[in-house]
Amino acid sequence: MSSLAKVPCTIVTGFLGAGKTTLVRHVLENAQGRRLAVIVNEFGDVGIDGEILKNCGVENCPEDAIVELANGCLCCTVADDFVPALKNLLDRPSPPEHIVIETSGLALPKPLVKAFNWPEIASRVTVDGVVTVVDGAAVAAGRFADDPEAIARQRASDESLDHDNPLEEVFEDQLLCADLVILNKADLLSADQRSTVTGEIGKTLPRAVKVVEAQNGQVPVAVLLGLGAEAESDLSNRPSHHDLEGEHDHDDFDTFIVDLPAFESPQVLIDRLRKAAMAHDILRLKGFVDIAGKPMRLLVQGVGARIQHQFDRRWSSDEVRRGRLVVIGEKGLDQTAIQTLVAG
Ligand SMILES: Nc1nc2c(ncn2[C@@H]2O[C@H](COP(=O)(O)OP(=O)(O)OP(=O)(O)O)[C@@H](O)[C@H]2O)c(=O)[nH]1
C-alpha cells in the first residue's frame, strides 16, 4: 500500500504544561469537517486532558473520537496500549481521516514514532509529523537549562557523576524528533526573549525545522496537519538521549493526587496552590475542585507558579462533587508538606 493510502497521524509532544491539550483542542475546533480522532495520554491517572478535549463540543468530533490512555507514558506502553488503541480506531466502520496523538509531557516521542513500523500497523498508518510544543516562558526562565550550582554540588559529592538533568533530557529529546516546533505562550515573552528562545531552540534542533510562534496553540490547522513527514522512515535523523538505553523509565519524576475539600472561593485555593508551588519544585498541577455553593466545577491548572482557573462545566446531579488535584514534580517532592499546604 502506498503511504497515500495510510491514515496520517500527528504526534503532539512537548514538556509538561507546554500547551499540548490547548493546541489539540484548537485543532478539533477548527477541523472544518475533517473526521479526526485523538489519542491522549497523560502522566498521573485523573484523566483531565481527555475531559478537556471531550468538552470541546465540536460536532464532527464526538466523544468516542477521543481515546484516553490513562496512567503511564505512551512511549513505554506501546505494545499494550498504543498499538491496540490505534488498531481499534482504524477498524471502526468509519475510520478517522487523521489521528492526532497527544503524548504525556514526560514522554519521549521517538519510541512512539518507531512503533509505526510495527507490522500490525505499518501498512495502515504513517506519522504525518511530530509537532513539538514549547513553553516559551519556561525556556526563557531557564527551566530546562542545566543548573550550574546543582552540577557543582553533584560533582563535589561524587567526582564520577555525569551531570544529568532529567528535565533537559526530556525537553531536548522532544525537540530532536520534531518536524515542526510551536513556540507557545508567546504572549508571555518580550520581543527580545522571543528571539533568544528561538535561538536556543535552533541550537538543539538537529535539522532545518520551522519554529512558529503561537499563543494558546492558535496555529492554522493547515500548518499543523499535512506535513507529510513519514517520520517512521526517517528515524536516523532523529537522535535521542535514550538511543542507547532502550526503554526509559520515569524514576526521575513523581506524581501523586491530593484529595481536596470544598473551598469557599477559588481565591482561597489559588493562594494555597501558589504558596505550595513557590515552596516546592512543582512542575505541574491540574485538577477539578468543588467550590461550595457553586453549580459549576472549577478546573485548576498550574505550570510552575503560574496558576489558571475557570469553571468548566456543571456538576451533574449523579456525580460526587469530589475535588482532586494531580501534582507532578521531580523525584523527591515532599508529598505530606504539599498536601498539608493545599488541602489543610
Ligand atoms: N499565557 C498562556 N498560557 C497558555 C498558553 N497555552 C496554554 N496555556 C496555559 O498553560 C496551561 C497548560 O496548558 P495545557 O494545554 O494543558 O498544557 P499540556 O502541554 O497539555 O499539559 P500536560 O498535558 O500536563 O503536559 C493551561 O493553564 C493553559 O491555559 C499560551 O499560549 N499562553
Automatic annotation (TrEMBL):
Gene3D superfamilies: CobW-like, C-terminal domain, P-loop containing nucleotide triphosphate hydrolases. It catalyses: GTP + H2O = GDP + phosphate + H(+). Keywords: Chaperone, Hydrolase, Nucleotide-binding. One of its GO terms (biological process) is cobalamin biosynthetic process. GO terms for cellular component: cytoplasm. Pfam families: cobW (PF02492), CobW_C (PF07683). Residues 253-344 form the CobW C-terminal domain. One of its GO terms (molecular function) is nucleotide binding. InterPro entries: CobW (IPR012824), CobW-likC_sf (IPR036627), CobW-like_C (IPR011629), CobW/HypB/UreG_nucleotide-bd (IPR003495), P-loop_NTPase (IPR027417), Zinc-reg_GTPase_activator (IPR051316). Zinc chaperone that directly transfers zinc cofactor to target proteins, thereby activating them. Zinc is transferred from the CXCC motif in the GTPase domain to the zinc binding site in target proteins in a process requiring GTP hydrolysis. Belongs to the SIMIBI class G3E GTPase family. ZNG1 subfamily. This is Cobalamin biosynthesis protein CobW. It comes from Enhydrobacter aerosaccus.
